[in-house]
Design brief:
Length: about 425
């Protein structure tokens, strides 16, 4: 009887994760479609469509729809709740999250930042607090989990802390806008504060926590000392590294040194991580399929480039350049969100067979990755040409629109390839 109940419980947990992971993928498709619409709006503006309003919808669904829901699903898959009460609690949290995301998806394109969109975004912040507290309460006293996954849980604990810390930015925007500060340095600083602790805190630490969970699950021996040092370096650096997001305001010279020191610590942590991975490269090749290795490798490459770019931005000339050339900012944000966090999450779900990789899904994933790399290259190329005061690429906006079609198209192929996923766990290689 006990074994039957355990099997039923595992089946329910699997089904719940399956639903959440697929909902997250659906939001990813919407993010791609909204991004394509925005690029068409630059080429041939559609009358009555407010670019800024749709940009808000695009960014909020990307951060709070796709990635938040994906991490929600993955964390509860890695560390499933053990009681019926906990499972019901997390189920309600996910339903409230969907209400908030769908509310933002519908309200932002119509009114931008106004009553309904602010209400739904506030609801999302509150439910994220609820989730962070509930999840940490669920794992913090489980000695068995800590003995097996101590590194992973420490990364995840910091990720939840940084997620909560990031919300200071949105809370500050209300008073700033109410006092007529929209568009001011303080207004944009609040946005960049939020983005920093989302991208470099919540997303980055959660992804690393899930990666170390995978190593533990596969019983791949790795250096606990190097992993702990990496954890401390990244954890200590994350808070002062927020200064890098404010250097466009041209603060006192000491802040450039603070940002540079934080960026240097991050790069040192990256070196430790690369050394750790090199030492277990044989095990990684053995335990992960070709597609998963490719996705994880691309995510690692994008993480490395991101951290090196952050260190370069501590120099005044580079900080000014990044602020003046918008293409560099867009390229950097997409590098972090798409290249690192999103690509890793796709690989994670494929490895756990929560996403099926059939023939059409392989084609879709290939389109997504190919055109992501092409558009990133075009963004940085155009930015470099402008920086060097050379002739810009002709018809750049049209080219970017055409090259962007492949990303939502690829995501659609991946999404609709998931039919029957609950009945099939095909090999992902």
């Amino acid at each position: 009887m006990y074994r039957i109940k355990a099997l039923v419980r595992r089946k329910e947990q699997w089904h719940g994760t399956l639903v959440r992971a697929r909902v997250a993928l659906g939001y990813f498709v919407l993010v791609g479609a909204l991004g394509l619409l925005l690029r068409w709006q630059v080429v041939h503006p559609v009358e009555g469509l407010n670019y800024k309003y749709f940009l808000h919808a695009h960014s909020h669904v990307a951060l709070l729809g796709w990635l938040y829901c994906a991490l929600f699903a993955a964390l509860l898959y890695a560390y499933p709740p053990s009681t019926v009460k906990q499972r019901k609690l997390f189920k309600w949290q996910f339903l409230v999250t969907l209400l908030a995301v769908n509310g933002m998806l519908l309200s932002f394109p119509v009114q931008g930042y106004a009553l309904f969109s602010i209400t739904f975004s506030t609801l999302h912040i509150l439910v994220s607090y609820w989730f962070a507290w509930s999840f940490w309460k669920h794992v913090r006293h489980d000695n068995n989990l800590w003995q097996k996954h101590s590194i992973s849980l420490r990364f995840i604990g910091l990720s939840l802390l940084f997620m909560v810390l990031s919300s200071i930015g949105p809370w500050a925007m209300g008073p700033i806008m109410a006092t007529g500060g929209t568009g001011s340095e303080l207004y944009f600083s609040a946005i960049y504060f939020y983005l920093h602790f989302q991208y470099n805190g919540w997303f980055a630490f959660a992804v690393l926590g899930l990666f170390f969970w995978l190593l533990d699950q596969k019983r791949i021996p790795y250096s606990q000392v190097q992993a702990t040092r990496m954890l401390w370096l990244l954890g200590v650096a994350c808070v002062p590294a927020v200064v890098l997001s404010f250097l466009w305001t041209k603060p006192a010279a000491v802040w450039y040194w603070v940002g540079g020191a934080a960026a240097a610590l991050q790069v040192f942590a990256l070196v430790l991580f690369l050394k750790l991975l090199w030492d277990i490269r044989g095990e990684l090749l053995h335990h992960f399929s070709t597609w998963v290795r490719g996705l994880f490798g691309l995510a690692l490459f994008c993480l490395s480039v991101k951290l090196v770019m952050q260190m370069a931005s501590a120099f005044p000339a580079v900080a000014d350049l990044a602020y003046q050339v918008r293409y560099f900012i867009i390229g950097y944000l997409h590098l972090s969100l798409l290249g690192f966090a999103s690509v890793f999450m796709l690989g994670f779900f494929l490895h756990q067979k929560l996403y099926r990789l059939g023939r059409y899904a392989k084609l879709g994933l290939s389109l997504l990755l190919l055109f992501f790399l092409i558009t990133e290259a075009l963004l940085f190329l155009q930015g470099t040409l402008l920086w060097l005061q050379l002739p810009a690429l002709p018809d750049f906006n049209l080219i970017m629109f055409l090259m962007s079609i492949g990303m939502p198209a690829g995501l659609l192929l991946v999404f609709f390839s998931q039919k029957g996923l609950g009945r099939s766990c095909q090999k992902t290689d």
